[in-house]
Design goal:
With 826 residues, this protein is α+β, with helices and mostly antiparallel strands. Helices cover 30% and strands 16% of the residues. The chain is built from 27 helices and 25 strands. Strand 21 (642-647), helix 22 (657-668) and strand 22 form a beta-alpha-beta unit. It is globular and about 95 Å long. The chain starts with 6 loop residues before the first helix and ends in a 31-residue tail after the last strand. The relative contact order is 0.14.
Length: 826
C-alpha cells in the first residue's frame, strides 16, 4: 500500500528536470568550501537571530489550538504486514518505509510529477538547489550539485537541523558496511571509491585487478582456492577469507528480496506452507529465512515436523536450530559446488549483488587499505560551506561533485536527513567529524538499535507500534505547519480486506485494487458504501506479453505472434474503464512516453498478416491440411509449428487470459498449434526463461518510476549489463547470435540507451527515448498490453474531503494524502 507521501523522500527513482531550481544567488565570492561542518560562533561573540525559512502563513497549533475531531479523533490509514524496521537507513519494505517516512524530511522534495523541487514552501530541507555540468563533452566532465539549506528548521524534539546532520546521513549511507536498501554508494562521487576502500586510486586499481584474477581462478568443488599465476599465495588466501562474509550478504539479499516481493499470505500458502500466513512467517526469523530458501529453490518446509530440508538433502529442525544468512549461503555454495565463475554458477541466483563484487569490495577495503598511510578521512566530492543568497541571508550549503553525467543522480542525492544526535546517542565508540565511525560493525549495529523508534523532522512524531497499530502525534514544529490532525495511526490489515476495513470503520483511508464492482458500489452509495468516496489514478507500471527471442530468432515469427494478440481484450474483458491500451515498452505516466504512438502490431483476427510473416521467414504452409511447418534447415523441419503460452493462473482469472485464448484461435486458423500452460511460478523462472521452456508469457511491470532509463531491461550486451530482464526476453542471446539486421538494431538501441544517460537535457532525452522505444517495441520481444488504474478509497464522513488532494494533483507520485499536514477531519 504505497501512500506516495514519504517514499518520495528516499526511494523514488524519477525524472530529471534540467534547470537550476530557485537559485540562491551567484555570489561566488561569498562562498567558502570546507570539508567539515562550519564552526559555530565563539563563546562571547555577537550572534544574529536566524529567521526560520518557513511559510509566512504556516499553521501553528501552539498558538491556534485544534478543535473537535482534529484534536480528539485519530486518522486511521491501512497498511499491510510490517517488518518493524522503522529506520530512515534500514527500512526495506514499502510498508515500513511509509511508517518511518511520516517522521522524516528529505534533502530535496518532489512535486506531483515526481520532479525534484526545493524552496520555503516545499517539503524538504533545501532552500534551493542547482545542478551544473562542467567541462561537458570532455574526459574531465563532471556534474556539480549544490544544496542550500534552510535556516532555523528543527527536528521534532526541538534540536536544530545543521549541515552536520546532512553529512551524517550521507556518510552513513556511503559507509562500506552499510547494508540497507539505499544505493547511493553506486554514484560516481569524486573520492568515494578511495574513501570506501581507504586506498588511493592506484592502490584501489592494484587490488581490484588482483581480486579479478583471484576470482576468475575460482574454487574447486570442495571450496578450496585454486592457484593464481602472478598472485602471491598469501593474497589468494586473504581474498577467500572473506567468502563467508560476502556469501552471507549474498544470501541476505535473497531473503530481503523474497520478503519485499513475495511477502503475502497468498505466496506463502501457495509455495511454502498452506497453513501459515505471511504475518506468521515474517514474525519468525527462522521461518523467514526458510521461506527465502524455499522461494529460491533451496529448501522445502514440512510444517508437521517444523523441518526444512535444504537443497543438499540436509534437514534443519527449526525447533532447535537457528537459521542464519550464513546457513543459507553454505547451502547455496554446496548446491552449486562452489561454482562462482560459470554462467550456470552461483551468480545466476543473485537477487542483486554478484559474488565477485561483494568479495572484491571486502578484499580491497581490508587488504588494500593497509597500504594507505593515515587513511582517507573525507569524500573529496562532498564539501560544505556558506553562501549569501539573493535575499541577503547567509545559509549553509552542501556540494556534491560526480564524475560524468548521471540524469537520475539527483534522486539518489535527495537523502533523508536524519538527526545525528539521536542516532548516535549511546554509541561508545569514537565518531569522526562527519558523525560516523567508518567501517565499524559496532557503529552500524548501534544505528539499528533505533529501528523500532524513528525520529526526524517530518509532520508526525512516532509514539509506538503494538498490536498491529502504529501511533503518532503531530509534530507541531513541522516546517510547513502543524498538522491539522493531532493523532494519526497506521492499522495493519490483511491483503484483500481493504474495502471491508473501510466499511466497518476499522480504517478511514485505504487503497484496494481497483475494480468496476467497487467503483459502481461506491458510486451508487447504498448501505455501508454511503460513507465512502474514491479517487482513481494511473498505475506506475504496465502489463505486457513477453516473447523469448531465443525460441523465436526470426523477427518475422515474433511479429506474427504479436499481430495475433488483441490487446484491447485486456480492457474489454477485464479492466473496462479502469485501464487503457499501451503501445510502447514504457509506463505511460513517464514524461518520455511519446505522444499518441502508433500501434506497431495492429490486431489481425483473420490470421492473414501472421501467415504472411511466417511465410516470409521461410516457414511452409499446407493449405490442404491447414498446417504450418518449420522451414528447411530447422531442427524440427517438416513438423507442425507449436508454440507454448504460459500464464500464472487460469485464463479466466488473468487480464491477458482472453488475449491468449483469442491468439490461440487466430494462429490455429493458419495451422500453428498453440498450447496454453498454467504455471504459478512462471515469474520466478523468467531469469532462466529459455532453460525453463518459457516461450511466451504474460506479466506486468510495476513501479516504473519517472525516469525513462532503459538500461536494466533493454541493454543487450551481457558483458556490460548484469541484469536478468534481457535474458528473459532472449536479448543477450539475440545480441550474440541473431541476424545481422537484428544485431544492428540492438547495437543502435544500446547506443541510444547510453545517449539517454549522457545528457541532462530533458527535451533531448525525450527525442532519444522516442526512437529507442520504437526499436524496443519493434523487436516484438515485449508486447505492451494495458496500463491500469489504482484506487484510493476514504471515509468521507470522517475525513473532510475538500482537504485531500484531488483532480490533477493526484498522480502516481502523489496520493490524496500527499500533503497530510493539511488534511482535516469532520
Amino acid at each position: 500500500m504505497k501512500k506516495n507521501l514519504s517514499r518520495l523522500l528516499a526511494l523514488l527513482m524519477a525524472m530529471l528536470m534540467v534547470v537550476a531550481m530557485v537559485g540562491c544567488g551567484d555570489k561566488k565570492e561569498k562562498e567558502e568550501d570546507t570539508k567539515t561542518t562550519p564552526a559555530a560562533s565563539p563563546s562571547g561573540s555577537a550572534t544574529t537571530e536566524v529567521k526560520p525559512d518557513v511559510p509566512a502563513d504556516r499553521y501553528d497549533a501552539t498558538t491556534t489550538p485544534r478543535t473537535g475531531a482534529n484534536e480528539s479523533t485519530p486518522l486511521v490509514i491501512s497498511t499491510l504486514t510490517l517488518d518493524g524496521k522503522f529506520s530512515p537507513f534500514f527500512a526495506t519494505s514499502g510498508y515500513d518505509t511509509d511508517v518511518v517516512g511520516m517522521t522524516q524530511i528529505g534533502l530535496i522534495g518532489y512535486d506531483k510529477d515526481g520532479a525534484p523541487v526545493a524552496g520555503i514552501d516545499e517539503y524538504c530541507l533545501a532552500y534551493s538547489y542547482t545542478q551544473e555540468v562542467k567541462d561537458q563533452g570532455t574526459d574531465n566532465e563532471t556534474s556539480e550539485y549544490t544544496f542550500v539549506l534552510k535556516n532555523g528548521i528543527t527536528f521534532s524534539d526541538g534540536t536544530p537541523i545543521t549541515v552536520k546532520d546532512v553529512l551524517f546521513s550521507f556518510y552513513t549511507f556511503l559507509d562500506p558496511l552499510y547494508d540497507g536498501s539505499s544505493t547511493l554508494y553506486t554514484l560516481d562521487i569524486q573520492g568515494l571509491s578511495e574513501y570506501r576502500t581507504q586506498t588511493t586510486a592506484d592502490v584501489n586499481a592494484k587490488y581490484s585487478e588482483m581480486a579479478e584474477k583471484i576470482y576468475a581462478a575460482g574454487l574447486d568443488s570442495e571450496g578450496k582456492p585454486n592457484a593464481v599465476d602472478g598472485v602471491d599465495a598469501a593474497m589468494v588466501e586473504a581474498y577467500w577469507s572473506y567468502l563467508s562474509e560476502a556469501g552471507s550478504k549474498f544470501a541476505q539479499e535473497i531473503i530481503d528480496y523474497v520478503a519485499s516481493n513475495y511477502g503475502s499470505t497468498a505466496y506463502v500458502q501457495a509455495y511454502f506452507c498452506p497453513d501459515l500466513t505471511w504475518e506468521e512467517v515474517n514474525a519468525d526469523e527462522n521461518l523467514k529465512i526458510a521461506y527465502g530458501m524455499a522461494m529460491w529453490g533451496f529448501g522445502a518446509y514440512d510444517a508437521a515436523t517444523n523441518t526444512l530440508t535444504d537443497a543438499t538433502g540436509a534437514a534443519h529442525d527449526l525447533s532447535s536450530e537457528t537459521l542464519t544468512a550464513e546457513t543459507y549461503w553454505n547451502v547455496i555454495a554446496a548446491a552449486y559446488g562452489y561454482d562462482l565463475t560459470s554462467d550456470e554458477g552461483i551468480n545466476n541466483v543473485s537477487a542483486g549483488s554478484t559474488m565477485d563484487t561483494l568479495l572484491s569490495d571486502l578484499f580491497v577495503l581490508n587488504e588494500g587499505s593497509k597500504e594507505a598511510e593515515g587513511g582517507i578521512p573525507d569524500i573529496s566530492g562532498i564539501t560544505t560551506g556558506k553562501v549569501t543568497c539573493d535575499d541577503g541571508v547567509e545559509r549553509d550549503y552542501v556540494k556534491v561533485v560526480l564524475n560524468g553525467v548521471d540524469p537520475v543522480a539527483i534522486f539518489q542525492l535527495g537523502v533523508t536527513v536524519a538527526p545525528f544526535h539521536y542516532y548516535t546517542d549511546g554509541f561508545s565508540g569514537t565518531l569522526d567529524e562527519h558523525g560516523v565511525s567508518l567501517n565499524d560493525k559496532e557503529f552500524i549495529a548501534h544505528l539499528k538499535t533505533k529501528n523500532n523508534a524513528p525520529l526526524g523532522a517530518g509532520p508526525y512524531v512516532f509514539q509506538s507500534y503494538k498490536d498491529n497499530v502504529v501511533t503518532y502525534v503531530a509534530n507541531d514544529s513541522f516546517l510547513l505547519g502543524s498538522p491539522k490532525i493531532k493523532n494519526l495511526r497506521y492499522q495493519v490489515i490483511s491483503q484483500g480486506s481493504e474495502l471491508d476495513s473501510l466499511k466497518t470503520g476499522t480504517v478511514h483511508y485505504s487503497d484496494p485494487s481497483a475494480t468496476t464492482e467497487i467503483v459502481n458500489d461506491v458510486t451508487e452509495g447504498s448501505g455501508d458504501y454511503a460513507k465512502l468516496a474514491y479517487t482513481l489514478v494511473d498505475n506506475d507500471g504496465y502489463g505486457y506479453i513477453g516473447i523469448n527471442a531465443q525460441f523465436f530468432p526470426e523477427l518475422e515469427v515474433r511479429q506474427a505472434i504479436a499481430y495475433s494478440m488483441n490487446i484491447q481484450l485486456t480492457i474489454d474483458n477485464w479492466y473496462e474503464e479502469l485501464a487503457s491500451v499501451n503501445y510502447r515498452t514504457m509506463s505511460k505516466v513517464c514524461w518520455a512516453y511519446p505522444e499518441n504512438p502508433e500501434n506497431l502490431f495492429p490486431y489481425d483476427g483473420t490470421g492473414a498478416k501472421s501467415k504472411e510473416l511466417f511465410l516470409a521467414a521461410g516457414y511452409k504452409y499446407d493449405e490442404a491440411t491447414n498446417t504450418m511447418t518449420y522451414p528447411d534447415g530447422h531442427e524440427k523441419a517438416g513438423q507442425q509449428v507449436t508454440i507454448k503460452y504460459t500464464i500464472p493462473s487460469d485464463a479466466s482469472e488473468h487480464p491477458a487470459g482472453s488475449v491468449f485464448l483469442d491468439s490461440q484461435k487466430v494462429l490455429e486458423s493458419i495451422g500453428v498449434k498453440v498450447d496454453i500452460e498454467i504455471d504459478q511460478n512462471v515469474l520466478d523462472k523468467l531469469s532462466t526463461a529459455y532453460e525453463n521452456g518459457i516461450q511466451v508469457w504474460c506479466a506486468a511491470w510495476g513501479n516504473g518510476g519517472i525516469d525513462p532509463d532503459m538500461f536494466q531491461v533493454w541493454y543487450s550486451d551481457p558483458s556490460v549489463n548484469q541484469g536478468t530482464s534481457p535474458a528473459a526476453k532472449g536479448l543477450f542471446w539475440l545480441y550474440q547470435n541473431g541476424s545481422d539486421e537484428q544485431k544492428e538494431t540492438l547495437t543502435k538501441l544500446n547506443s541510444l540507451i547510453i545517449a539517454g544517460r549522457g545528457t541532462l537535457d530533458q527535451e533531448e532525452r525525450k527525442a532519444i527515448y522516442k526512437e529507442a522505444l520504437e526499436l524496443s517495441t519493434g523487436l516484438a520481444c515485449e508486447i505492451p498490453t494495458y496500463q491500469r488504474k489504482n484506487m484510493f478509497v476514504y471515509n468521507k464522513d470522517v475525513i473532510k474531503a475538500d482537504t485531500l488532494l484531488s483532480g490533477e494533483d493526484v498522480t502516481p507520485f502523489q496520493s490524496p494524502l500527499g500533503e497530510i499536514w493539511n488534511v482535516e477531519l469532520n
